Every structure is written in structure tokens, then in C-alpha cells.
Amino acid sequence: MSTFSIFLILIVIVAFLLIVVVMVQNPKGGGLSSSFGGGGSQQVGGVKQTSDFLDKSTWALATLLLVLILLANSSILSNKSVGDSKLLDENSTTQPVENTNDLDLPEAE
Fold this sequence. Notes:
- By secondary structure, the chain is mostly helical.
- The chain is built from 4 helices and no strands.
- The protein has a domain at 1-23 and 45-76.
- The mean pLDDT is 75.
- Its main location: membrane.
């Protein structure tokens, strides 16, 4: 399994987690944080801590996604510099392709 494939799998997982975290949030104070009830920030594990956790995890997952995308891009670029395709090497040692313009076509009347 190539390095790019590993990065691609990690990108898909992080993107899915980011979607879940964003969908749980509600910009008007609803979502998961409102389901715990109460409105005071004095509660342990209450509304304030839940929204802080979701906010921090959104930023962390977004940052991780960006880093993984950059690393995947660099792994593609490093793999291209390793060498050319074997197919290109084989074609360079074979005979040139015949000219297809010299085909025996029936003449138009």
C-alpha cells in the first residue's frame, strides 16, 4: 500500500468526523449542547463545555485535514521524482510506430 493510499484513507476518516462534528453543532445554541438541558455555564459537562469541545474539535479536525491533504500532495510529488514509468522505457527500445496516413483506402469517386 502506497503512502498516498494511507493518506487518502486518513483524509476520508477525518472528513467524515468533521462532518459529524459540524452536523452536531447548531449555530443558534441548539444541537447537542442544548440537549443536556440547563443554560448555566456552571454545570460540569453542560452547555458551555459541550460547545467549547465541539468548537475545539472542529478546529482540530479542520487543521488535521489540511495537514493530511498537504502531506498527501507532497507524497504524490515525491513519488513522481523516483522514476519514469516502465511503459515509457519499453516503448523507447521498440520499433517506431508505422505511419497510419499510408493506409490503402478506397478512392472516392
